[in-house]
């Protein structure tokens, strides 16, 4: 199944003219939130776009191996994008949060996410809710369940103890807002699912980061009580092979 998901993600990227080709370098620093400097094997230093709005806590190790992608766009100020970094324990983390939805979409198409099998239609970025959010995916057309399914995806990269992942890595008012929207969908008779996309090879379970954002932890537990389903899937990451794919379910521990 892993090989199928990886092949699907690669072919889908190919037809979108964005193949998964990663180049190696040494991470020097991340700064101004969306920038990072790396050193190439040639010794040249370049600046990359860092596509991560979080704190990237425990994901920035100066002088550690990293991998980046390159865009053919002529309009981008920074054509290179930081994708994968080396984290404590020798693990790898995919810090491009923009890839999380693609990983989940590929896993859905491959039937890998068992909790979400049976849906025949999927729409991304659908506006919904009283707080005017956009759901990552609206799933429908399940013969076994007439309800629409509102699927929210969150990328997880924070590990503070071996195997223990946390979300969020910084205070996230937006994350709590999304949980409230999901609870509202359940109250209206629909299905709501939060999926933690774990882009970290060392994480084997996920918990709310109460020590970072107490409000998010409280709201997540309220959401569970209200009927929102919470699942987590871990990613297989092999940067030298250009391989990035969801692999298997991992537990959510509260």
Summarize the helices and strands and which ones pair or pack.
Elements: H1 2-15, E1 23-31, E2 35-39, E3 45-49, E4 64-70, E5 80-87, E6 91-94, H2 100-110, E7 121-128, E8 133-140, E9 149-156, E10 158-161, E11 164-167, H3 173-187, E12 191-198, E13 205-208, H4 214-226, E14 229-238, E15 243-249
Parallel strand pairs: 9-12, 11-13, 12-14
Antiparallel strand pairs: 1-2, 1-4, 2-3, 4-5, 5-6, 7-8, 8-9, 10-11, 14-15
Helix pairs in contact: 1-2, 3-4
Supply database-style keywords.
39% strand; Trna Endonuclease, Chain: A, domain 1; OB fold (Dihydrolipoamide Acetyltransferase, E2P); disordered N terminus; alpha+beta
Give a description of the structure.
The chain has 254 residues and is of the alpha+beta class. Helix 1 (2-15) packs across helix 2 (100-110) and helix 3 packs parallel to helix 4. It is globular and about 60 Å long. It is built from four helices and 15 strands. Strand 14 and strand 15 form a beta hairpin. It has a six-stranded antiparallel β-sheet with strand order 3-2-1-4-5-6, with no helix packed on it. Strands 7-8-9-12-14-15 form a six-stranded mixed β-sheet.
């Amino acid at each position: 199944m892993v090989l199928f998901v990886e092949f699907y993600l690669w072919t889908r990227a190919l037809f979108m003219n964005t193949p998964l080709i990663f180049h190696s370098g040494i991470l020097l620093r991340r700064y101004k939130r969306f920038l990072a400097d790396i050193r190439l094997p040639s010794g040249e230093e370049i600046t990359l776009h860092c596509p991560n709005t979080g704190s990237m806590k425990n994901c920035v190790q100066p002088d550690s191996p990293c991998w980046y992608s390159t865009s053919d766009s002529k309009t981008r100020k920074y054509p290179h994008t930081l994708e994968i970094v080396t984290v404590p324990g020798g693990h790898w983390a995919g810090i491009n949060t923009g890839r999380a939805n693609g990983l989940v979409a590929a896993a859905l198409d491959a039937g890998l996410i068992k909790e979400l099998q049976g849906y025949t239609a999927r729409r991304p970025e659908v506006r919904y809710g009283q707080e005017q959010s956009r759901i990552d995916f609206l799933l429908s057309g399940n013969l076994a369940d007439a309800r629409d399914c509102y699927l929210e995806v969150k990328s997880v990269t924070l590990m503070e103890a071996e195997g223990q992942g946390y979300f969020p890595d910084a205070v996230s008012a937006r994350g709590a807002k999304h949980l409230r929207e999901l609870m509202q969908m359940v109250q209206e008779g629909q299905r709501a699912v939060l999926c933690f996309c774990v882009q970290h090879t060392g994480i084997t379970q996920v918990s709310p980061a109460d020590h970072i954002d107490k409000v998010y932890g409280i709201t997540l537990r309220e959401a569970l009580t209200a009927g929102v389903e919470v699942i987590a899937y871990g990613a297989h990451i092999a940067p030298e092979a250009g391989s990035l794919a969801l692999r298997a379910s991992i537990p959510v521990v509260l």
